[in-house]
Amino acid sequence: MGNSLRAAALLAFVVLSILVSLLISSVQQFGARVVSNVTRSEQQLPEALISQLIERRKEIVPLLFLNEDEDHFSDQSLDSTWDYRVWDKIARGSSRAPGAELGCDSLVDMQALEVLGSGYTKLVVKANLAGGLAVALKLVNEQGIDMGKCVEEFNEPEACRQLVAYKLKKEMVLLKRLQHPNVIGVRGAEGGRLAVILEQGTPLQMIQLLQSPWEDRFRVCLDLVHLLHFLSSSPLGSVALLDFQPRQFVMVSGTLKLTDLDDVSAEPTQCQTNADCTLFFPQRNFSIPCVRGLCEGLNQKRNMYNAYRYFFTYLLPHQAPPTLTHLVDHIMNSTGELKSDINETLQAFEELLAQYQSGAHLDNLPAFELSDYWLLQHVGASGGQYRCWLSYSAQGCVLSVHSPREAAHICNSHSQCSSFSLTGQRTWSGRLLAFFRSSSAQLIPNGTSDVYVKKNTVSDTPSL
Ligand SMILES: Nc1ncnc2c1ncn2[C@@H]1O[C@H](COP(=O)(O)OP(=O)(O)OP(=O)(O)O)[C@@H](O)[C@H]1O
Ligand SMILES: *[C@@H]1O[C@H](CO)[C@@H](O)[C@H](O)[C@H]1NC(C)=O
Ligand SMILES: *[C@@H]1O[C@H](CO)[C@@H](O)[C@H](O)[C@H]1NC(C)=O
Ligand SMILES: *[C@@H]1O[C@H](CO)[C@@H](O)[C@H](O)[C@H]1NC(C)=O
Ligand SMILES: *[C@@H]1O[C@H](CO)[C@@H](O)[C@H](O)[C@H]1NC(C)=O
Ligand SMILES: *[C@@H]1O[C@H](CO)[C@@H](O)[C@H](O)[C@H]1NC(C)=O
């Protein structure tokens, strides 16, 4: 990355300097203090573009000095180092971020640019750190629609790049301000190239999720509720995600994380009457009360209904454990009708999780079913794999169970099943992974596994 990166950094610096002087000149026009004159060619930048640049920058400024203890970036201090100081501050982050922040020096292997995803504004590529850690680099998408539109309108590629880059900068500030387990982690930033270094995830695949066990789909919904609970009273106030879609999220080791933060609003909506506070959705409109000049809980409710229509309806009811459906139905109804606030919704989800983990919903499974099986301790199995619906494994039938009793109940309901093994492996919620097998399975000694063999499939006590 050495020379080309340095060249890129130099180029970026030149561009930034030009743009900053442009900003200054445009501020001059608005009667601000005169700092310096601009050259002829810069004056030729369309005014509309200049004012968009100023608008974008204005959005970032208030996000920068929310805390009193942090050094202020005055809106007045318009000199050629403004952009650099801001970026530097964003990139270094505050002392809250644990560990050393990464710069581009720690990145190796930039040649193999594998694209992880791209959108209107940004491009995300894979990169490896010197220590072998895989990260994601978020950059301005030169081929994106944002860039394309700007260049088409103004034919000023450098200034357009800068305009689009402000979205990336804003996102970087927001990611720092809104650190949470369900928001993508920032590992660092690289000023010259204008890249944000993020923890690496995999884009959320709804189609794949629809074919996953209920437990995993429930986890995505639960993560989302944790995120919305945090956003409802975040350091920036109550934050609404304006562009709320599955593609704004990625999965990192099974955890859902928000990655696209450039389109959020932390502004309360002002109102005179309740009619000013209508939430419009294609299927439904909601009227929110106007209380003391503000629409009460509008941001929170907007997020909640989006969570309902993009996530819960697809992921939650389908294949829910039959004895938990009353809790699931309650959640579906109260979020779909916006009857509960986010705190109550979080409580309902936690109740559902607790019920699921406790296995209490299995109390009325017939107790005798486990007595249909021989227990062989310290024995494993191989072969005899068959497929089942919503399996954790593509090759065989692997499902999560609360107890051997639940596994016995499942095995009895599969015509092929004649044994199952438990290896102590657990899912995120703490349930046991059970491997179901047909009668062609071989039993082999294994200190970390127990096998339960159906009695009616063996004539005598099985021997190894
Ligand atoms: N940390 C990450 N790890 C892996 N993939 C990621 C990561 N961050 C983002 N992506 C992928 O890159 C895509 C583009 O990122 P992002 O949503 O920030 O760009 P965007 O231009 O704002 O997109 P959009 O047009 O959807 O708003 C995402 O949809 C996601 O699939
Ligand atoms: C700016 O331009 C004006 C005339 O347009 C000139 O009088 C002045 O000296 C210039 N200032 C600088 C700092 O170059
Ligand atoms: C929502 O309100 C708009 C504007 O009043 C109206 O046109 C639309 O039909 C309403 N949608 C639903 C689903 O009620
Ligand atoms: C909620 O329940 C009511 C009453 O049973 C029903 O009329 C309504 O359609 C349900 N709404 C949703 C979103 O499930
Ligand atoms: C929701 O919970 C948060 C913290 O968990 C609390 O600060 C807030 O006041 C609660 N909101 C309501 C409406 O109860
Ligand atoms: C014992 O079982 C565990 C868990 O299934 C498996 O990972 C391991 O490979 C098995 N060991 C042998 C020797 O087969």
TrEMBL record:
Name of the protein this chain belongs to: Protein kinase domain-containing protein
Molecular functions per Gene Ontology: ATP binding; non-membrane spanning protein tyrosine kinase activity
PANTHER family: PROTEIN KINASE DOMAIN-CONTAINING PROTEIN
Signal peptide limits: 1-25
Sequence ranges assigned to domain Protein kinase in this UniProt record: 110-375
Source organism, top-level taxon: Eukaryota
Keywords: Signal
PROSITE patterns linked to this entry: PROTEIN_KINASE_DOM
